[in-house]
Design a protein that fits this description.
Elements: H1 2-10, E1 19-27, E2 30-38, E3 44-48, E4 52-54, H2 58-62, H3 71-78, E5 80-92, E6 99-101, E7 104-106, E8 112-114, E9 124-127, E10 142-150, H4 155-158, H5 161-174, E11 183-200, H6 205-212, E12 218-220, H7 222-225, H8 232-248, H9 254-258, H10 266-269
Parallel strand pairs: 4-12
Antiparallel strand pairs: 1-2, 2-3, 5-10, 5-11, 6-7, 8-9, 9-10
Helix pairs in contact: 3-6
């Protein structure tokens, strides 16, 4: 991501972070600009363009149009359901479980492990060392990511960061993966609407898609933008396809919606 950002800026582009979109300004079935507020300063700016991409949750996008969609379409988007996510990063000296190899015991080789124990809230464990050595400053330590799938109405969402870290450390210690006394550092991230769900009003999502696709220069991409449980590679592919379509002068968005409709996962078909 850092390299992509560097190239964008080097070619004269601008990257604005920490902004909240207030309004999508339209003219008929074209988007003309996006009005956004800087979260730190409150300053409001307007960003014009020829083409626009949205990775925002459908609910938020639909409520941002200056020309409000029909009431039935808004009701459908409001009825979409999401799951939220809390990720707890724990830096530890070592794990209590290891891989047995001909050369002795080594760090577990898994990138992530789904946790099946019914008496913990923890859903999945990531070992960031195995994603990339650049994610761990000291390779003798282990950087873990504990994932809690939840809703904002759940008690865990309202816990303080210290409370979430204490829970995560205790649970991982209780199921025998770490010694809670070896936690060196921690970080808590809360992500709203991480997982778009296929219930609620999703069975009528095609009506939302048909409506939004009428904006000829607006492309919905990514997991939340399309309300689809895509893998990262699928999400990136939708963005690349959208750019290819724009360059070719092809504004039919059907191909974007065909991404990730195959029966097999890419990883399994190799």
């Amino acid at each position: 991501m850092e390299e992509v950002a560097r190239q964008v800026i080097a070619m004269g582009g601008e990257i604005h972070t920490g902004c909240t979109v207030n309004r999508v300004i339209t003219d008929g079935w074209r988007v003309c600009a996006v009005e956004a507020a800087n979260s730190a300063t409150g300053a409001i700016g307007s960003f014009t363009g020829d083409f626009f991409f949205s990775t925002a949750p459908i609910q938020e996008l639909m409520r941002s149009f200056d020309a409000a969609p029909p009431g039935e379409i808004l009701a459908l988007s409001d009825g979409l359901v999401y799951r939220d996510l809390i990720t707890v990063g724990l830096l530890v000296n070592s794990l209590k479980i290891q891989d047995d190899t001909p050369h002795g015991k080594t760090l577990l080789s898994d990138n992530w492990i789904y946790i099946q124990e019914p008496d913990v809230l923890l859903g999945r464990l990531q070992i960031f060392n195995n994603w990339s050595p650049y994610m761990v400053a000291d390779p003798t330590r282990v950087w873990l990511g504990l994932e809690y799938f939840c809703n904002q109405t759940d008690a865990i969402w309202s816990l303080s960061d210290e409370g979430v870290v204490a829970l995560a450390s205790e649970e991982l210690s209780r199921i025998g993966i770490i010694d809670a006394r070896e936690v060196l550092d921690s970080k808590v991230l809360r992500m709203e609407k991480t997982y778009p769900a296929y219930f609620g009003t999703y069975d009528r999502f095609a009506e939302i898609r048909t409506y939004v696709d009428r904006y000829e220069n607006l492309f919905l991409i990514g997991r939340n933008g399309m309300h689809r449980y895509n893998n990262q590679d699928h999400s990136m592919l939708t963005a690349m396809l959208a750019v290819d379509h724009i360059i070719a002068g092809e504004l039919d968005k059907s191909a974007l919606w065909e991404v990730n409709t195959e029966g097999d996962y890419q990883e399994e078909s190799k």
